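Protein in question kept in full:
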Amino acid sequence: MTDPSLIDHGRQVPSDSPPVSDVALRGVAPALAQQVTLLTDDNGVRMLALAHHVPVIGRIGIVIRARLEGVMAAVHPVLDQRIAAGFPVEPQGHVACEAFQLAGED
């Protein structure tokens, strides 16, 4: 069970942040309390976490980290598979290009 005061604290974000559901707040609250990295691709949740100085990483970040740590040989094939499966990233867009650059595959 999440401490209700943490959820209330999580609601205190800049007014220009996208709205975040109570369910998302319940997910962010433990990361806020423990100051651990939060895994999310949801922009509203990401902004909420960052507003509270909680580190955030998304699916692409996990793939980049795996590549940099030698767990996988390349980001390109993994990202191509995700895009083919419906992952909402443009193959030649900014996010994909930045991922390839960060992974040393540009």
Q: What stands out?
A: The mean pLDDT is 82.
